[in-house]
Specification:
alpha+beta, Gyrase A, domain 2, four-stranded antiparallel beta sheet, 8 helices, 8 strands
Length: about 240
């Protein structure tokens, strides 16, 4: 726990944390749960090869038969800034347990955009692009981020020091402070997340997510590709459309 004194060594991070805690995910269970509709209990002893499973999964994704993908689940530990969690939790096909600023003293770790983060938005709503920032803009951003976080966090500690409740004191903290949570979702929900939260050439329905939540999606996708390679390949081949 951070002591109640002025903090000068705030942590400024540029990354998102995604760790797989546990899973029950496989291409095999997708195929078995789909086949139960036609062979019943024989699906329990199905030992089909990858080529046959791949063909079935591709059919399911192409025709958007989604329920067989709900039997593969992932539980992730995710650490991201509060403003990313606001977007993440709009995905209601997931279960969340987040650390609580009511019960624990929040650590002084804050997100700051990296140098390659595009800063300038041009165009109007629904038809805009982001462009590179200048050196002056990046310097101004960094100065304002770090100074504001330092002032806010020290004010937070000052309130805790005089006995103000954590749930009251936390209200002064900025949206770029990190929070962590366990996130559980099935592969159907995960594909929905990936389809909306990444900008990938070749997607049937183009998406334009905020860069920071895309960073989370990229890490989810790497785990998904490793755990369910046939499903992942079919997802990509079919234009990244969730079933």
């Amino acid at each position: 726990m951070v002591s109640h004194k002025q903090v000068s060594n705030l942590v400024f991070s540029r990354d998102m944390t995604v760790e797989l805690v546990q899973d029950s995910a496989s291409d095999q269970i997708v195929a078995r749960s789909a086949r139960v509709s036609t062979v019943g209990e024989k699906s329990l002893i199905s030992n089909t090869d990858d080529s046959e499973i791949s063909g079935l999964i591709n059919f399911l994704l192409r025709e958007r038969h989604g329920s067989p993908f709900e039997h593969s689940t992932f539980t992730f530990y995710v650490k991201a800034p509060i403003f990313v969690w606001r977007e993440h939790m709009r995905h209601r096909m997931a279960s969340y347990n987040e650390e609580s600023g009511r019960y624990k003293e929040l650590a002084p770790e804050f997100y700051v955009p990296s140098q390659d983060r595009k800063l300038v938005q041009t165009g109007k709503t629904g038809a805009y692009v982001f462009e590179e920032g200048t050196a002056l803009q990046h310097a101004k951003m960094m100065k304002n981020y770090t100074e504001t976080c330092s002032v806010a966090y020290n004010a937070y500690l000052d309130m805790l020091k005089v006995g103000i409740a954590k749930e009251v004191a936390r209200g002064i903290l900025p949206l770029n402070i990190y929070s962590s949570a366990y996130v559980t979702m099935n592969s159907r929900a995960l594909m929905n997340f990936l389809s909306l939260r990444q900008s990938v050439e070749g997607s049937h329905f183009p998406s334009y997510p905020q860069r920071e939540i895309e960073m989370v999606a990229e890490k989810y996708e790497a785990i998904f590709a490793e755990k369910m390679p046939l499903t992942y390949k079919s997802f990509v081949d079919n234009g990244r459309v969730a079933p």
